[in-house]
Amino acid sequence: MESIGITIQDRHHFLDGTIDTPVYRLPSGTLRVQLRLRKAIPFDLYQRIKAGLHQPQVKEIELAVSSESCDLSINEIQQYLKPILEELNLPFHGSIILEHEAINFLCTDENQEELLADGADEIASRLIIYGIPYSIATKRISANVKIEEVSRPQTSHQTFQPQQNYRRKSGKLEDYTPVLLKNITDGMENIRVKGKIFQIDNQMIKSNTTLRQTIYIHDEDDAISCLRFAEDDADQTRFNELKTGIAIEVFGNARYDKYARDINMSLKDIQVVADWMKREDNAPEKRIEFHLHTKMSEMDGVSTIEEYIQQAMDWGHEAIAISDHIGVQAFPK
Q: Most exposed among 76, 92, 208, 219, judged by the fewest C-beta atoms under 10 Å?
């Protein structure tokens, strides 16, 4: 462990921790390492591990940390925040505080507050890579207010009180620009995209207090993943009502995720819409399909017999003929 920068004094950070099998990508020369720990680690330890992983053939290190909780101090979190804010071109020289599992930027300038509020989701998604599962908020303060450095507040006995003075900039949804999936590029802001859900992944973070939901949509030309978060129970229940096969319109910003190595959408809102991709059979005389493969025919079919029967009923077809390989296998469950 010493060879990658971990000393005897550091080993308590890795008790009960695991490491996924490292992935080396060619031809980019990128090494991806995923640590799964109980708590987030200090920034200087993160940097030492990353430096220790460098090898002559490795051009880039992607070191990700998944943690169950975070008890880093304000100063340690600021060390993680500094390169993130620089990369996002969000200069901030004020103070931050931790409150109700959120990092609050204390702003004295309205423009600075708006910039940070717009970048809040992006900042939070990058902190998650380091195992810091906090949301981001902004709070306006007077320029002559003195902020004293305090230790991380203990939240175990606190009762959450909504903070009405937290400000998130939002625009009218009708002002968002319609974009086709295939035309989305990194950095697009305030765009709206239509697609049909084909997969939903839910993950509880922040000690099982926040739902991180990834929604995958397609429009038969392209596909994209969309990310959103829910903290209170009502929002989590509403998020879980979303199902695959539903046509939706998503509103948000497009960004490049260097760990997924693809562009995704950071969502601000979702609306269910009519399924414009649904095909109809308006022929006066219906056809009958005599050559149909289900997913029981390897490399030839992908749908289940139930899906075919439902489609035939929707189109008014009287019958279908299943012609799977070898024999009749695709019987209903």
A: 208
Across 158-172, b (16+ Cβ under 10 Å) vs e yields eeeeeeeebbeeeee
| Whole-angstrom distance, CA of residue 233 vs CA of residue 213 | 14
Find out whether 271 and 252 touch, Cβ atoms under 8 Å: no
Q: How far apart are CA 186 and CA 150, in angstroms?
A: 38
The token duo for 59 is: 């051009």
User: Residue 118 belongs to what H/E stretch?
Assistant: helix 110-118
According to DSSP, the residues that pair with 262 across neighbouring strands are 257
The number of beta carbons lying within 10 Å of the beta carbon of residue 252 is 23
Size of the chain in residues? 333
How much is the pTM?
A: 0.47
Give Cβ neighbours of residue 122 (< 8 Å, ≥ 6 apart).
88, 253, 255, 266
pLDDT tens for 84-120 read 998 888 878 788 888 878 898 988 888 888 888 888 8
C-alpha atoms less than 13 angstroms from C-alpha of 131 in its C-beta half-sphere: 24
What are phi and psi for residue 160, nearest 5 degrees? -70, 130
Per-residue tokens: 18: 């695991």
The stretches of 180-240 forming alpha helices (DSSP H) are 233-240
